[in-house]
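Lecture 7 notes: from sequence to structure.
We start with the chain below.
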Amino acid sequence: MTNSSDLALQRPRSLKQRMGRLFGQWGVFFRGFLEHPKMVGSIIPSSRFTIEKMLAPVDWKNCQLFVEYGPGVGTFCFPVLERLPRDGALVVIDTNPLYIDYLRKTISDSRFHAVHGSAADVGEIVAALGFEQADYVLSGLPFSTLPDGVGPAIAEATHEVLRPGGAFLVYQFSARARDFMAKHFARIDQGFELLNVLPCKLFWGWKDKAA
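Predicted structure tokens for the same chain:
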């Protein structure tokens, strides 16, 4: 039987549909980059190789709430929703109303929540939606170009909102994000994805289960 979640995740099948969606996404993504270049990590969405490697450590069976900062046009949203349990939830947070409006129009999954706001306020946002803690938080925000004080605030707020044993998943072009993460996460696994434009560094910061 097909439910609303299944319908929301069905991808365009015809070439015309696929091309229309691709250019529609790229157009919105590029416009967002031009309007707020310091808040968008790249001019091109992440590759499927980056997506697969970044999400590989996630324990999906025990994931009830997945949060993403800076979702853009939803490059990670569909892969996350495809893996997320039927009773789970995906909350995406972005300061750019262009992206939030686009995602609300293109993703009609009942598990999906798009919020216009700051990642530094993730605790309040999660609580307002009726959740206590997040299992995983994903971020592609460009920590190296964020305004002063914002990066450290996001890292601290993320550590607080995560459940013990949860993880902060970060993909970046520089290692600046790791400096902010290291103040809160004792264990940070690292990776690298060459097949991405540009090649990017990957970090997984794990919250101590005894925290």
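Points to note: Residues 15-35 form the longest helix (21 residues). The longest strand covers residues 162-172.
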